[in-house]
């Protein structure tokens, strides 16, 4: 069996999200596992760290690659990314889900197409339903 090296990597900076959501590693972990399910990915493991006095990092290791979030609640900021190999799992669906639950005021996103030679950078169209407060 031959495997494709094709992958999509969506990275999003969000601003203006709720302090309480961004400062709750346990809640973020649950949302990220749900995001993996929404996009059809297979969760292998989950790691999270709650920082003091605030902030969290959560990493969901997927069979297809990963989903991560790093938060700075005092600034209302979260850096999200989802990278998936192959064509069966759509990382944009995971990111759209996370944006829909974080409800930030602003998002800035890029999508990298990887594994086909030189990386291509796109500006993905965010799911408008995910941006509705």
TrEMBL record:
Listed SUPFAM superfamilies: S-adenosylmethionine decarboxylase
Catalytic reactions of this protein: S-adenosyl-L-methionine + H(+) = S-adenosyl 3-(methylsulfanyl)propylamine + CO2
Pathway(s) per entry: Amine and polyamine biosynthesis; S-adenosylmethioninamine biosynthesis; S-adenosylmethioninamine from S-adenosyl-L-methionine: step 1/1
Assigned GO CC terms: cytosol
Residues at the site labelled Cleavage (non-hydrolytic): 64-65
Chain segments annotated as coiled-coil in the UniProt record: none
Catalytic-site annotation from UniProt: 65, 70, 85
Reported cofactor(s): pyruvate
Domain of life: Bacteria
Enzyme Commission number(s) from the entry: 4.1.1.50
UniProt keyword annotations, A-Z: Autocatalytic cleavage, Decarboxylase, Lyase, Polyamine biosynthesis, Pyruvate, S-adenosyl-L-methionine, Schiff base, Spermidine biosynthesis, Zymogen
GO aspect biological process, one term: spermidine biosynthetic process
Residues bearing the modification Pyruvic acid (Ser): 65
Pfam families: AdoMet_dc
Cofactor annotation comment: Binds 1 pyruvoyl group covalently per subunit.
GO terms for MF: adenosylmethionine decarboxylase activity
Post-translational modification: Is synthesized initially as an inactive proenzyme. Formation of the active enzyme involves a self-maturation process in which the active site pyruvoyl group is generated from an internal serine residue via an autocatalytic post-translational modification. Two non-identical subunits are generated from the proenzyme in this reaction, and the pyruvate is formed at the N-terminus of the alpha chain, which is derived from the carboxyl end of the proenzyme.
Role noted for this protein: Catalyzes the decarboxylation of S-adenosylmethionine to S-adenosylmethioninamine (dcAdoMet), the propylamine donor required for the synthesis of the polyamines spermine and spermidine from the diamine putrescine.
Subunit structure: Heterotetramer of two alpha and two beta chains arranged as a dimer of alpha/beta heterodimers.
PANTHER family: S-ADENOSYLMETHIONINE DECARBOXYLASE PROENZYME (PTHR33866:SF2)
NCBIfam families documented for this protein: SAM_DCase_Bsu
Family the UniProt entry places it in: Belongs to the prokaryotic AdoMetDC family. Type 1 subfamily.
Cited HAMAP family: AdoMetDC_1 (MF_00464)
Listed name of the protein: S-adenosylmethionine decarboxylase proenzyme
Organism expressing this protein natively: Paenibacillus oceani
